Amino acid sequence: MNRNTPIRELKGVGEKRAALYGKIGINTVGDLIFHFPRRYTDYSAQVSADAAEIGQHAVIKAMVVKKMPAARIRQGLVLYKIVAEDEGGSRITVTYYNNRFAADALHEGQEYLFSGKVSGNFTRKEMNSPTVISAEEKNLLRPVYPLTEGLTAAMVTTNVSEVLANAEESFFADALPDEIRMEYALSTLEYALRSIHFPKDEHAAELAKRRLAFDELLRLQLGMIMIKSRTRTENGCKMLPMEKETARFYAALPFEMTGAQRRAVEDIIKDMCGDSPMNRLVQGDVGSGKTAVAAAAAFLAAKNGFQTALMAPTEILAEQHFRTVSDMLEPLGVRVCRVTGSMTKKQRTDTAEKIGDGTYSVAVGTHALISADTEFQRLGLVITDEQHRFGVNQRAALAGKGNNPHRLVMSATPIPRTLALIIYGDLDISVLNELPKGRQKIETFAVTAKLRERALGFVKKQLDEGRQGYIVCPMIEENENELAAAKGYAEMLKKTALADCRIGLLHGKMPAAEKDRVMAAFKAHELDLLVATTVVEVGVDVPNATVMVIENADRFGLSQLHQLRGRVGRGQYKSYCVLIAGTVTEESRQRLEVMTKVSDGFEISEYDLKMRGAGDFFGNRQHGLPDLKIADIAADRELLACCQRAAKTLLEKSPDLSEYPALKAEVDALFTQNGNAAEAL
Asked: How far is it, in rounded angstroms, from Cα 383 to Cα 538?
């Protein structure tokens, strides 16, 4: 049996169970062995039935004393109840629903260890559908796997045991060089794979996890470093620094650039004038001035005779960038155009002609920039805003319109440096960690729904003073979850607290032209209040807006809340953000409390990473980061540092990993599976 053996050929599986495995991505026995437990149940931590706390998980050692007859309580639902008694004489009732197999496996007079959540009351303890092992078992640390309906822990455990008992020697072939394994005190792969599923104790489980997490992070690091090295080709768009022109750009700005902005511009100039094409990330908090840095880069490119394409993920953001960049560059003689999907055919044709003949030096737009009818005369710089919102192919298609142009990525999503080094491992990083003069701290409050009326009264007071505001809802229309919905919310406001105010509605399903119309009306103060979904997260700049209410704030990640909050506080007036929690739990309370105390986006992102983990950091996996099955970037930072050193050591010996073919194959496979092969390995 080898790793490629189809899962359906495994003893005891068959077509039906193979289909269940397929639902969770397990198609071969190799997939099964690399389907790791998410945690373990420690059956040695036992309590008596009397001592077991209601509502808490417990392990109770007890003997089956009575099996009740099966009871059909309604059509399609059969209950199986078993009464068990512990050594002290206390009893617990175990119930299974529609699971005759589990009930039949328990025999009167035999002792078992029952693991599950305790329910009932102080006089009668119960457990519904617990996991059970014989009290005679010696291995009391048992794996708990991610499952799907119809697939039980017992099935997975049995199948994993079968694989490990019959695996060929090649199954445990180790791609990690021995010198690396020894240097970082790592177990063998065979030990790790056997111990991650069936550890003898917690120490064995930790050793196994450390080795397998190391493998994941090392492959990730190797892949990203190799991508970075392959982008270091000859600079086909080499530029001159033009210090006088850069000084002219600074002098023409209506504000003074921060030190961080100037350092970023210096980094960009050095890159574009260097021997290799630029590949740089400008990462800054909300309002840190990334667009001005991008405009400086586009200005330098124009003065060197090159064109720039700036691609944004939404029309609202593209329009915002177009206006900002135009205001900065047009007075200096640099022509700027926009390219969006909502333009008429004639507008697109006319604009495309002027891009093609070099009339326009800067084109700002959405993914419409990628279309076949948009051809550049001499594209030298590609700027992508919020890169994680674009697919690899989209970014590559835009860069393909030039001869290996310089690449600049902007992100207003503060990312912990640890995570940024992985997600943007192929980029050099400039951080804008200073806010422009005049930006104020936004006072933030976290409240429950009980205080909604008071919060709306506060909004009304701000609007009465001539200010504007936002109310953000996580959904457009009501559904079974009863979340506050933008449409219904807007209608409710018109009838109640803010009936006299001019209220607009903005959401992602609106036609682009309608979004633009609403935003233009809000910016012109033809609307007092904008009820919106998270479409306002980026691209909305209204200095007169001073208050934001975010409904169901507990549903958002901290970084996204920070992004939303950054839409206010952009002018001279004191600004406020009110977070209304839909569901109050200890976790949501702690998370929202962070928002009330911390204003630095990078610090908030650290909290977000710790609380949610890397896999959920961006939501809906937009970032293209390969799945991590066992490593945890938030918890395994020390291990990540080891992997970075190990990757450097290996690539110094063999830059293309040709001396380590098995390891190279694993790295290639990781990136191919995640759609990055096209521009990566």
From this structure: 16
